Amino acid sequence: MRLSRALIFAMSLSACGFEGAPVSQTGVGDSTGSGNSMADGGGVSSKSSASILSFAVFGDSRPPNQNDTAGYPSTVISSIFSNAQASGAQFVVGTGDYMYATTQSAVDAQVALFMQAQASFTAGPVYHTMGNHECTGYTDSNCPLGTETPNVKAFMSKFVPAGVTTPYYRIDKDTTLGKVKFLFVAANAWSTAQDSWLKTQLADLTPYTFVVRHEPSDDPTAPGVTPSDALLNAAPFTLELLGHSHEYRKLDSQHVISGNGGAPLSGHGSFGFLMIDLRADGTVSVSEIDASTGMPKDNYRITAVGRAAP
Q1: Cβ 148 vs Cβ 135: under 8 Å
Q2: Model confidence over 75-93: pLDDT tens digits?
Q3: Assuming Cys at both sites, which of 71, 232, 277, 309 could form a disulfide with 63, CB separation 3.0 to 4.6 Å?
């Protein structure tokens, strides 16, 4: 008899002491030995009685044209951060593409504008995923060393957490429902080392796993999309947060694009961000928020293994 991934996951949690609702944990986030795992115990929220972890997600905050620093969407980005804070986000997750630059001067100027807008968010840290514009700009580009272009050098010096030495990394959050891990996959910095790292992180079963990657599966030209998909398809996880397409789009209950963070929009829609809440009942609420009004435009709930919640 073949067991479903969800059932295997539930059995694994039970074997680890997660019978029913996962138990509270402390001291999580120990290094895996790869130098790219970060402990962060700031996961318990008092936002509301129904939410124990709240964070915002945005992506693709770049100007419309190459080296177009004058067209940088600072107003949109600032609005996203201010509305995320007003919505109770404890931290923010970026899905990639914070610049559109090919020269050192343009990279420096656009990064400075982004950091100025980000500074308005004071509730907690901001964690960033690498996009193709943090490599060469091309979707099929690859910068595994983190030193190949001014763009990736800026990403490594300004956008990854202190102590992280690779473009990919893990963040852990403690909650009363157990450990929540975030895996930041760099599809434009793919290597055998990252492949092994992702395999190891996915094998470390936690009650909730959020995977953050820039390119969605329908754009596999990025070097890390196909190999990381192969690993994700064989492992349980809660939700994959994506960008690259300049839109908000729910692909299915387990995959959502948040790429409407300031870059020219793809088709209809508006600039916005996601608010994600881990609720006390164990479900995860996903809401699309309009950047200009702060009002929700869509909402759905999923389970810990990414199934639609009743």
Answers
A1: yes
A2: 999 999 999 999 999 999 9
A3: 71
